[in-house]
Amino acid sequence: MLPLLLASSSSYRRELLQRLRLPFTCASPDIDEQRLAGEGAGDLVRRLSRQKAHALAGAYPRHLIIGSDQVAVLGEQILGKPHTFERACEQLLAASGQQVTFLTGVALLNSETGTCQVDCIPFTVNMRELDVACIERYVEAERPFDCAGSFKAEGLGVSLFQSTHGPDATSLIGLPLIRLVDMLAQEGVCIP
């Protein structure tokens, strides 16, 4: 098996990948994550996932490189990482009582052969009705400034949900393991 590389600095993705009990290393890709004019959310996460993997291919020529990216979509609006307390509160207030769809892109690049598998996994969250005090308590407690949509599903963020639906709950956290296992199998990696 070729060595496995996670093209990410995300602690969430690293923790998820550890579930597969495969040895891997991490490196942070340096890419421009700006949305292209007219680019849809699904196309955006597929492109960024692929670019993250390809950005490290030169430095890791005989590896299986995993790239991933995620956005939250509320109506027609793409919600990125809030970065600030105020922006997190704004995002959660807008999402209150609404349906938010998370789109998580995943790419697996074999840097030896150039073969790259790419997919986008949707996961829908129906949010509870949230008041400003609840939102502020949550944001203060979790500080979800590096999370698309401003909540951490693996933590207290689950208290904001009324229901969820999707093919892979790990995609909500940032790396769709079910789909990744399929991709790894196509590269001859057996799990377990």
Entry summary:
The chain is an alpha/beta fold and 192 residues long. It contains 6 helices and 7 strands.
Helix and strand content put the structural class at alpha/beta
Number of helices: 6
Total number of strands: 7
Output the CATH topology. Maf protein
Roughly what is the average pLDDT, rounded to an integer? Answer: 95
CATH architecture: Alpha-Beta Complex
Estimate the strand proportion.
25-35%
Give the CATH class.
Alpha Beta
Q: Give, in order, the helices and strands.
A: EHEHEEHEEHEHH
The oligomeric state is single chain
What's the gyration radius in Å? Answer: 17 Å
Structurally, how many domains make up the residues?
A: 1
Q: What does the overall shape look like?
A: elongated
Largest sheet: 7 strands, mixed
Helix content: 25-40%
Q: What is the rounded distance between the termini? A: 14 Å
Low-confidence stretches: none
